[in-house]
Amino acid sequence: MRDAEETRLAVNRFIDQGASVIKVYFRLPLGLIRVAAETAHARGVPVTSHLEIVDAADAIRAGVDGVEHITSFGTALLPPREAEKYRQSVLADNNARREGRYKVWSEIDLNSPRVAPLLELIARRGTFLSPTLAVFEKRAGDQGATEMHVRGFAQMVKFVGMAKRAGAHIVTGSHSSVPHAERGWAYHRELELLVESGLTPMQAIRAATMENARFFRITDRLGSIEVGKLADLVLVEGDPSKDIGAMRRVNRVMLNGNWIPPESKMGR
Question: Structure pTM?
Answer without folding.
Answer: 0.94
